[in-house]
């Protein structure tokens, strides 16, 4: 039996995990950026909001940072990286005082004008 075009395209979607980390931490709310940028020293590393697994997933032309709850594997948040030639720092911004912490811009897929910022941290040696 032949599949309809819609069913065939849905089953042809391939997700490729290009990178993953078993342990990362989400910080929220994070203080606003200073004139120099976001500073991890203003976050309390021991007071993270959620422990997550991080996966970078390629789906077609899209590259997505997917955060999943460590215990259940449920989706916590996704950060879609720009594929229009604009700077990646629109979606992922390193903090100015550490190489282990970043700020992710989470954009509402239904309303692109809505977004939120969360902090993301990694354990040493990751």
TrEMBL record:
GO terms for cellular component: clathrin vesicle coat. InterPro entries: NECAP_PHear, PH-like_dom_sf. SUPFAM superfamilies: PH domain-like. Pfam families: DUF1681. Residues 15-123 form the NECAP PHear domain. GO terms for biological process: endocytosis. PANTHER family: ATP-BINDING CASSETTE ABC TRANSPORTER-RELATED, NECAP-LIKE PROTEIN CG9132. This is NECAP PHear domain-containing protein.
